[in-house]
Amino acid sequence: MSASGVSGATSLTIHAAATKIDTNGNTHFSATLADGQPAGPSGIIWSVSGGDPRAGAGRISADGIYTPPSYLTREAVTVSVSAALIGNVGRLTDSAELTVTPGFLQPLTPGNLSLEPSGTVTVTGSMTEVGGSGSIRFTLASDAEGTPSTAGTLSEPHCSRGSVEGGNPAYTVCTVIYTAPTVLPASESVFIRGAVASNPAVSWTRVLLNPAGISSNPVVHQARLAVPVLLGSSSGNNSDYDASQGQLSDCCGGTLGSLVQDTVGTQYVLSNNHVLARSDQSLPGETIIQPGLIDNGCTPYGVGSGTTPVATLSGYPALNSPTSNVDAAIARVSHGLVDSKGNILELGVKQPDGTLAAGPPGISSSGGRGESATLGMMVAKSGRTTGLTCAAVSAVNVDVMVDYFTDCAETAHSFRKTFTDQIAMAGASFSDAGDSGALVVDTANAEPVGLFFAGGTDINGIEHAIANPVGDVLAALDAQVPAATGGATTYSFVGGADHPVSCLSYGGVKTIDEAAAIAALSLTERERVDAALPLAQTLMIGPGVARIGVTASKDRAGAGAIAVYLDPGAVAPTISAFIGGIPTVVFPLNGDVAHQPIRAASFNQALAVKKRNAATLLKSNPALFGVGVGRSLDNPSDAALVLFLDRRMAVGHVPESVDGLRVRTILMDRFHVTRSHGTPVRGISSCSAERRLSSTDSQELPETPLLTLPE
Predict the structure, then answer these.
(1) What pLDDT digit, counting tens, does each position of 437-451 carry?
(2) How far apart are CA 56 and CA 49, in angstroms?
(3) 682 confidence band (pLDDT: 50, 70, 90)
(4) Bond into 228 cis (ω within 30)
């Protein structure tokens, strides 16, 4: 707004999007004139004052975006935000107050782990308060929401308070020791929750208590390993960082997934393109290090110590190509620096101390080419951030859209790629940022199944992971990446005899509260189901069906359904997926049908329906970013078309069925490439693995200034 446009204004009012934030957030301020019209950015001068006596008041941009200081020296400070109207003779002003509190600089680490009876673990959290009196409050809970738990004990927390001497904040790091119960009646999870005083933000660590006595801590995967290094560990490209004016400002990393070899026996490490090749930005010959930059204070090899150069980038199928369908890259192993047998952390047998030995993937039944995933197959992966975890294959033949960026901070969008016929897995704490490149194996025999590259979290807190089928990965390498000799070759996995994998499963899909779901049905939905009940009773009441009722669909939140209760004394009949246009939900009275196999006819129908409709569906709804074939939750013996929908967008119209097939919807974060990255906080080099939930795996911060890169 020009000066001439405000000369007659009589008042100015500031509007704040929030009145309280922590040091990790920001908020937007705007201003209006007396007539309610907005005062545009060109008509306002913004300023801030007050705040922390050492860290200052923060900063505000020309368009009213306020960013707090990176640390505080007390539990809360008040910042005054002022706006002045340009060009007004009386210089109209207004101000508003904002409370800023410390936030989690480094949320609790490890983010997940497994403990045996009476086992102990030290949990660490870092907060952006320096030299003050604040601390992290630790509590035990039976879920992420905070329901109190008595499963184990917590010690008194110990906090090391940093300083700002020399202008270099060291922040406050708090630790607590958790001890598991001596008797574990069944495998279950307990949550160690951390909260910062006067801040609603909560971080948590999920501890799997298992009677089998297995102890597993992902911190091992993030450490610098002795050579020859094991697979399943932290890794990345030595040049995978962002820089500004000669200073490093961010860094990335992922997982050293597995070992492959060409026909002449030359060995290569296999991971994702976006981990080893920086999303198509690298050239062959670049250095691959262990651990990745994110676990070495963002300090590249050659600039400082702490990493080992273990391989040299050899090649990759280009992501930004319509002919590629995998996110993969290989790097030639430097002699003697990577375990030549392909051993992966925690993929082996349980040891006397409860930890899991490293072990190779199984190759004896497939000749090193891996096997195909099937619905319901239990799979495991060993990754940098969450370690060894297990989950079930939840969908196959998944077409999914994934975004790629040219920088670690993911501010410079590069392209969006659609992958076809991928594998989906679902399970609590199965995967997280930094697990990119991990090999997914069949828990029954350790045979390779997929290459993990993207994930997201649904509204129930369940992680959904996406992997390239290993057959597609090897075929793409065969076709596009020459061998060490420079000629064509065939790649295969390096491994050993097939063997079972210990399965650490932190939980699956949450049980739906049937009563609450039914009570939440809208009047219109209830009326639709009631209208179809007479027809349902006429068609269904008979041998095998005890009664008909009203329920809520498990496949589609908020949708009504017809409940079909099976007679415990009869053979279960085939239940129609829809009656009068209303879906049916099957309730067995004499057993659990959830583990029954999907009817072959239903599965084949679903594959055909998906193939015909996936491309059209992905274009029809901006919120829809994935389509695959999975199991119906309403009737587990039926297949369903699984639709992945962006939880942050208006979902709009979603079909109740497609070509007569059941539709199951999953509302979640968009699938995101799972390379981990960190953003250095002002004055220090900091690299933290971002978590999509409220907990993050990270390491303590080095007390060093931002790295100056060599010219």
Answers:
(1) 999 999 999 999 999
(2) 8
(3) very low
(4) yes
- Dihedral angle of Cα 246, 252, 258, 263, to the nearest 10 degrees: -40
Rounded to 5 degrees, what angle do the CA atoms 163, 167, 170 make? 35
Long-range pairs for 594-600 at CB < 8 Å and ≥24 separation? 594/636, 595/376, 595/636, 596/636, 596/637, 597/637, 598/375, 598/631, 598/636, 598/637, 598/638, 598/639, 599/574, 599/637, 599/638, 599/639
Integer Cα distance of 391 and 376 in angstroms: 9
d(CA 599, CA 238): 49
Distance CA 41, CA 707 (A): 35
Most confident of 167-171, 427-431, 630-634: 630-634
Mean pLDDT of 138-160: 92
45-63 core/surface letters (b: 16 or more CB in 10 A; e: else): ebebebbbeebbbbebeee
Rounded-to-integer distance, Cα 314 and Cα 484, Å: 8
Residue with tokens 């799972």: 674
Q: What is the DSSP letter of 510?
A: P
**Which two three-digit tokens encode residue 636?**
């587990």
What pTM does this model have?
0.85
Instruction: Give 648's Cβ-side CA count (13 Å radius).
Output: 5
Neighbours of 410 (CB within 10 A): 18
CA distances from 185 to 116, 210, 380, 388, 634 (A): 12, 9, 24, 23, 31
Burial of 553 (0-12, 13-18, 19+ CB in 10 A): buried
